[in-house]
From TrEMBL, chains A, B, C, D:
Pfam families linked: Glutaminase
Organism of provenance: Streptomyces rubrogriseus
PANTHER family membership: GLUTAMINASE
Gene name linked to the record: glsA
EC number: 3.5.1.2
Lineage: Bacteria, Bacillati, Actinomycetota, Actinomycetes, Kitasatosporales
GO molecular-function term, one example from the UniProt record: glutaminase activity
SUPFAM superfamilies tied to this protein: beta-lactamase/transpeptidase-like
Keywords on record: Acetylation, Hydrolase
Domain of life where this protein originates: Bacteria
Name this polypeptide is given: Glutaminase
Membership in a protein family: Belongs to the glutaminase family.
Length: 310, 310, 310, 310
């Protein structure tokens, strides 16, 4: 990691990136498995940086809420790890999947233990376990995001939640399949309701960059209390780097060089440990489900700043 | 990455680790696919640290040569990238394999393009391409390792090379299979000869820690000349982090948090970008082919020093 | 097929087989995924032959009802084909699966179209389609079995049906997964209810040998009316031969040489086209889910009589 | 099987089929992996029937030699089984592969034991074993084909043999891969030479229909001597039915209802046990590697004559 000799803001860098992204003809397509996502204009773009002290700034649509989708998997993972610790790892692995993000194949070869907490199967397990421990996994997530972002209006997009439920057969299949191996505690309909609500969180780049701050602060929340030990916070960063961008994790590490997590709503969050966190949003996705503009913006960011974990 | 406020040496840390490893009853088994490796005493242990300026020190058997095996894949990758640049990535991917290290399955689904340069199939492609560009891939590798380590006696273990060739059916299968997709340039017997010589390099922890130095110096060789651009050196670190330890890359990132590459000879090299490089050796392997003592020692090292890229 | 020059009965052959089976120490284990099946004594054995004219006779427990399970897949296939004809084959294939009987892997690679109607996924599709066409797939099946066997008491085992439902996560996963590809018409809970009732049919060797008669009579039912064309009846025999015994179809064809279908209740039905039908029952299963005594008995039957389609 | 009340010839049926095939616009493409096959005119068509007594007749190009390719796998299987008996089945399975014909995937999951003797991997094992037992597998095959067909001019197409060798990387990969599991006895280059010569046999529909006669005569050769027991001849028919047409075995059984074996040269041989054998040739292949005209002709044959094993 390149060490910046003085504290700095990245405003000029963000502005330059926003200009470049605007000039580049849009590419990628919004996720089309639910109508609420498909309707998004692929040319929208926002990017925010949150510094360790909670300062946040951005460019473009950085204050507009979008569908967080899989970005929330990072937070439920942290919330569950904070409660049950390493016992979680008996129920979900932490290896890259090497396969598209909702594959059933590996799950079958590996007896119902998902490869990692960021594929859908793994996130279902984490939500199931968090729900068992809290009685309200989705509520716990929402409270955490509101607290960290300082945005009490952050909430669910009910249209997206309903749409997820209406197109939920594949996640239902995953949940039942893992239940057949004894790796799901709650009734499948209860779990799916929790899971779809979690996916339907709507938040802005500003909100999500702030909410990710605990990973740059080695486990410390916005209010100065500790959510996770330093070691466990680093471990989440490691899982993000190796598993955070579906089956493009190697390419993302190669191009961007930061722990990151993407969602099919077009958002990506990224961590510069000890420095800052980023959230970028662009609805057009590449064929592996990652935001085209988002990856490009983060690639430019690390190139221009010299920041990277490598 | 935790920043050490003053330059320091890690001697006391290495000594503590060596004591701990010695106290722990040995586990793991030496690789048994060739007799030359199977004969190794699994209780052997060595560990070396090389600082950016070429200072190197260690504990245990840190000056004893062992079979480098797959550790050499890092160097042939660097040597080929230095020559052909990104064109290489049309012939080999950079995603974690998600499968055991010599799997043919993914190769078949992906039309003869190996997942990454560190699985055997990918290393065969890299060696093939380096051989086409140099006329002597194994010689090029040897010259590089001698120059970086400052050890002119560093060479091949002829017994291991002969043993590899005698048990080479699986690598021959991989090479012919990729050749059937047009992804191999040289005749398969020529390629295999080059590859087995590369695998049979014998070097010590000291040699290999020093030879890895260019990755901590962002592309600069021991003599101050540049092998790779800063950006490309970081990319190799990224590939090591996501793909360097077979199908345990996620676990290694989680426990150790450093770019690393393991070999079935029991060696592991690791990089603390901007700080130092490490090489550890212990012949007993876990079921995924990584040195049990080696992973444990690196885990302790990052825990005790706070160093990690996350 | 060896041609028997005169009509004959197979009584002496059956008696000899029953003696041999009794002498052989029992092997195989009852299916254990639901308690109702696991409790069965693996030494039970029955075998019946039904001639074309409806004459039926047997040995051992040939009149005792057992859980028909997957044997019913043959009848729902015939009932649906009789209604919709070849359109069915756009929704389910007719190739051997090459994988264990409830694998999700192939289903994923092949976009939700199950390999054949005799793996669970395929049977779910057939039941779904029959239910759409009749409004009561399970009732239709029961009516058919009662009519063909002449046994009005033939019915469901309610304990088995409840047990199937309580352990139905894997079938629920299959159904939701296919629904995600648009290959299921009815709501998944409705389909599963129909499917589990179908699996829970309890019938004897006598009942099932008689009910299979239409396949030996080239499509003609017990009452002389035609259920299927000659060509379509032959096609069902072909699907039984290539796909009827899970991933042991090749071995079954090799040893027995007759179209057959097995169930995890320990039953196997087999067809000698133009001659007779057989049903054999022994609860102990081999590792591929086929009755050990059942396969052995049919192997002996074809060896002793010279009957086989080859 | 429909029983023909009197002996008969199928001349009129063949003529009708030839007319129909001619009227149908050609479809399918010749195999293109070697130039010698790709050059074949896809509109060529021949079909021959051989009766049990050695009478043979045909239509179209039924006397023109074509590349037998995988059709020879049936004969090497018979020749090896005649020598070593059931011991062969410890080295090759007899289950449908469920995957394209030269897949490495299953081979890897099943430790180097090919699924059946008719996929390339399985045929390599059979040739290897026959070669060990005879010292000249290809010569043994040629002698058998000449004797059964009564055609002393039947031989190899040297251009095809050379072309196979020049494009042999995939078969070399298969052979080396199985050798790595200890399932190949001879040196790989020796085996490949034998195998490519076997594939390059050139023979006519008349030759091949006659050479297949022993399978319709339950193991008896043309000269009245016994090659295989009745039981073993039936078993080969069973393996042909379940595994003879790559991953279209289920479809072939469904449409044609006879044991058959196809080759990428466009030939298909089929057996009506106790009646006759057929060979049909049309170079245009469907996407699964079977002759389009060949399958259509056999489909018509069984429909028009009512012959089928079901």
């Amino acid at each position: 990691m390149a060490i910046m000799s003085t504290p700095t803001t990245f405003r000029p860098v963000l502005e330059r990136i926003a200009e470049e992204i605007e000039r580049t003809p849009g590419s990628g397509r919004p996720a089309d498995y639910i109508p609420a996502l498909a309707a998004r204009d692929p040319r929208r773009f926002g990017m925010a940086v949150a510094e360790l002290d909670g300062t946040v700034y951005g460019v473009g649509d950085w204050r507009e809420p979008f569908s967080a989708q899989s970005l929330t998997k990072v937070f439920t993972l942290a919330l569950d790890l904070a409660r049950e610790g390493d016992a979680l790892w008996e129920h979900v692995g932490r290896e890259p999947s090497g396969n598209p993000f909702n594959s059933l194949v590996q799950l079958e070869y590996e007896n119902g233990i998902p490869r990692n907490p960021f594929i859908n199967a793994g996130a279902l397990v984490v939500t199931d376990r968090l729900h068992t421990r809290t009685g309200d996994a989705a509520g716990e997530l929402l409270a955490f995001l509101r607290a960290e972002s300082g945005n009490p209006d952050l909430g669910h997009d009910e249209e997206v939640a309903a749409s997820e439920a209406a197109h939920g057969d594949r996640n239902a299949a995953l949940a039942h399949f893992m239940a057949s191996y004894g790796n799901i505690d709650n009734p499948v309909p209860v779990l799916l309701d929790q899971y779809f609500r979690q996916c339907s969180v709507a938040a802005s780049c500003a909100d999500l960059a702030l909410a990710t701050g605990f990973l740059a602060r080695h486990g410390i929340r916005a209010d100065g209390t500790r959510l996770l030990s330093r070691s466990r916070a680093k471990q989440i960063n490691a899982v993000m780097l190796t598993c955070g961008t579906y089956d493009a994790a190697g390419d993302f590490a190669h191009r961007v060089g930061l722990p990151g997590k993407s969602g099919v709503g077009g958002g990506i969050i990224a961590v510069v440990p000890g420095h800052c966190t980023l959230c970028v949003w662009g609805p057009g996705l590449d064929e592996r489900g990652n935001s085209v503009a988002g990856v490009a913006a983060l690639d430019r960011f690390t190139t221009l700043t010299g920041l990277s974990v490598f």
